[in-house]
Design a protein that fits this description.
This protein has about 140 residues and is an alpha+beta fold. The protein is about 15% helix and about 45% strand. Strands 1, 2, 3, 4, 5, 6 and 7 form a 7-stranded mixed beta sheet that branches. Strands 8-9 form a two-stranded antiparallel ribbon.
């Protein structure tokens, strides 16, 4: 199928909540558009230290993650982050990779937003079975 990237908007979810309560202005909400690798082999979303610093995301905990080579590494978990793609959104925490490592959009946000990979077009698309809103399996 090949490598697939998607244009994603990342927003500091704490800032969004503060803006909704009129504690800060909507123009003060930290947000950015990024191009992320769509990685169905990764469970979590992974950002890097640069993104974490620019969005001023809090570190909520530390977790260990197993890399593709089998090694286990401890990473910071930052969040909450509102993730937006087309007419979809979800709120997740993300593993913080060192430096400027590549950003990964993993299975949890993909499932939560009800988006799928279109294999022939090699792109991320909203689920064509539910084009207007995300629909989750409840069983």
């Amino acid at each position: 199928m090949g490598i697939i990237y998607a244009d994603i908007e990342l927003i500091n979810a704490i800032d969004l909540g503060m803006a909704k309560r009129h504690q800060i202005g909507h123009d003060e909400v930290k947000r950015m558009n990024v191009n992320m690798l769509v990685d169905t082999g990764s469970v979590y979303m992974c950002i890097n230290e640069t993104i974490q610093e620019q969005l001023q995301l809090s570190i909520v905990e530390k977790r260990k993650g197993q890399l593709a080579d089998g090694s286990v590494v401890e990473y910071d978990i930052a969040g909450p982050i509102e993730v937006r793609f087309k007419n979809r959104r979800c709120v997740v925490d993300a593993m913080v990779l060192p430096g400027d490592n590549e950003l990964l959009l993993g299975a949890i946000p993909l499932e939560d937003m009800d988006v799928v990979i279109h294999p022939y077009r090699r792109e991320l698309v909203v689920n064509p079975e539910h084009p207007y809103f995300a629909q989750m399996k409840m069983k």
